[in-house]
Amino acid sequence: MKEYALLISFCAFAGIHRPQHHVNSMDQNNKKLGFVNGNVDINNQVITTDGNEKKKVARRRWAILAKALKSPSENEPSSPTDECSIRRISSFMLLRTQRIENVLQKIEDVHVIDKIDKRTWYKYCMNLYDREYFVVVGHKKRTFSAEDLMGFNNTGNICIWPSEETLTYYLVANLHLFENKSVLELGGGMSCLAGLFCAKYASAKTVALTDGNKISVENVQISMHLNKFSCPVSCQVFKWGDTKSDIKFDIILSADCLFFDEARSDLIDTMWDTLDVNGFGLVMAPNRGNTLQNFIQQSENKGFKCKKITNYNNTVWERHLKLLENNDYDENIHYPILIELTKL
């Protein structure tokens, strides 16, 4: 039922309405979504209900997924606006992507060579303080299966969201906060981008990269072979609310993990269970209606003290102000806000 609900959620995003008849409804949705024998045909376009405008909207929204499932453009940074995107604002232009070749020459572990070869590899770069910072992340070459798309809270599977981009930038701009600290990233998706940058540059004590989706975790585990770190790093499946952890962390990172109302309390409980009494959490997410405020309220009910920081970095803030001149930019859904959570 949980997987079916996630599929229906995606159908709503793509402009496909919930079927009125139960018989063969899953098969009908699979065909509309472009599922072919359990896989997604990313070149397929969705034909929806009556009305040409609805069809156009659905096609544009399907184009988002198709574009995201395909590899990012070689040597080209993300565009701050995307005409086919329901998000419209896809980047704050803080990161650049550059495709890299011949990565197998750097690999000594023969057991991972095949998995590495099945991915296209990209360097995610940023420049701060006259220095380049980068990590290497793999993108799967194959099509995504229905299971991949319907896995546990798999919103991070598709692309780098602005919240992850800005959290990573904030982290690199404040590396001193993470020095000799144990760090946990929750819901890191296919890249765990902030956690990878932290593990490489922050001189942390340890970094634990996690996501609830096994496909995401496997991708990050493979990506770890292409990066060198300054501390011990782990990566594993961690589903919020499943178990209580005896391990406490100094810092918890989470970017745009507030999509699902039903998962919010599990996220808060997990943060409470895993955060050290003297530690702090950094959650980056846009207001998105009442979503962020509801998270703050529930966190405070749990016992957290929450600090809402709108201007957390001058560069990000300047780009936000510039984007306000764009009619497509809606700060309610596009501008990530930083929430600092503490127990004291």
From TrEMBL:
Its main location: cytoplasm. It comes from the Eukaryota. Its EC number is 2.1.1.60. One of its GO terms (biological process) is methylation. The keyword Chloroplast does not apply. One of its GO terms (cellular component) is nucleus. SUPFAM superfamilies: S-adenosyl-L-methionine-dependent methyltransferases. Pfam families: Methyltransf_16 (PF10294). One of its GO terms (molecular function) is calmodulin-lysine N-methyltransferase activity. It is found in: Cytoplasm; Nucleus. Keywords: Cytoplasm, Methyltransferase, Nucleus, Transferase. InterPro entries: CaM-Lys-N-MeTrfase (IPR025800), Methyltransf_16 (IPR019410), SAM-dependent_MTases_sf (IPR029063). PANTHER family: CALMODULIN-LYSINE N-METHYLTRANSFERASE (PTHR13539:SF3). This is Calmodulin-lysine N-methyltransferase. It comes from Popillia japonica.
